[in-house]
Design a protein that fits this description.
alpha+beta; Aminopeptidase; 2 domains; 8 helices; 12 strands
């Protein structure tokens, strides 16, 4: 058996995208997990995204047998990485080989830091990553719900973000996420640069009271960056925003809505469960030790 390993920068071509998607589906069916988001398929074919794949091929079978993904989501030159190996190739060292190639590719790109991601109960989780010199850092739970038409008028309206909203939305980010204003502005700049991403501004009686960001990937809408004006929290505004996003997804014929929440954030867990979400999986994050 001859295994070849190569690197492909984002945006990847259609053939590579389809190969990675097929690998994610095959491994996911075996493991009972979803690997598409872990391998950043939603961003891999999008121009302007900083990231790459390390790909391992069985030359004899002309088959992609493993993929490692690395993406610089925010543009800080720090990467989130993950790897998936075809079920038939997990006992011959392919995982170790592709991880070594991933670390070499990150070094070439002078990565300022890397988080390794792994699905809970996945084959290449904590035990494997510990052998590679990583330690557990934190976890995020993925929640899911279904889109739904709005049945009644709510006290908040949603409109698309406009450049004039920059300072206000950055301030909302600063309030909600505990970042500095500069970090909040960088996050907003990143979100506005993504082609498939929509930033929404929530208004009540003409005043901006919140914001939320959505990204549609095939038949799924992903929510990020929900923030509500801190002086108006506890008034149901967040729930109104979620209801409006469910309605928007329904209009776009998107059935499923997902989001990620840090496992330790009990307040957010409670909020999303109250608004009809259920936990469907958990992703663990690991950092390089030493």
């Amino acid at each position: 058996m001859n295994i070849s390993i190569l690197t492909a920068s984002y945006p990847v071509d259609r053939l590579t995208y389809e190969e990675v998607a097929e690998l994610a589906q095959t491994a996911g069916e075996t493991d009972g997990l979803q690997y598409e988001q872990l391998l950043h398929l939603y961003a891999s074919a999008e121009a302007g995204v900083s990231g790459f794949y390390v790909l391992a091929y069985d030359d004899d079978e002309d088959r992609l047998v493993a993929a490692a993904s690395a993406i610089d989501e925010i543009g800080f030159h720090t990467f989130e990485s993950s790897l998936v190996v075809h079920p038939l190739y997990r006992s011959i060292g392919v995982g170790t080989a592709i991880h070594e190639a991933l670390e070499q590719a990150l070094a070439v790109r002078q990565s300022a830091g890397t988080l390794m991601l792994a699905k809970e109960h996945a084959p290449y989780n904590e035990a494997f990553l510990q052998k590679c010199g990583y330690g557990y850092n934190f976890s995020e739970a993925t929640f899911m719900t279904q889109s739904a038409s709005l049945q009644e008028t709510v006290a908040v309206t949603l409109r698309p973000y406009a450049p004039a909203d920059f300072a206000r939305v950055a301030n909302l980010y600063e309030q909600a996420f505990g970042d500095t204003l500069e970090e909040s502005e960088q996050l907003l700049e990143y979100n506005t640069a993504q082609q498939q991403t929509m930033i929404w501004v929530a208004e009540q009686q003409g005043e901006v009271v919140g914001t939320i960001t959505t990204t549609i990937y095939e038949d799924e809408l992903n929510i990020t960056a929900l923030a509500v004006e801190q002086t108006m929290r506890g008034q149901g505004i967040g729930s109104y925003i979620i209801a409006l996003v469910k309605d928007e997804a329904c209009k776009e014929n998107v059935a499923t809505i997902t989001l990620d929440v840090e496992s330790e954030n009990e307040q957010a867990w409670s909020f999303y469960v109250k608004n009809g979400f259920e936990k469907v999986s958990q992703t663990n994050y690991f950092v390089k030790l030493g």
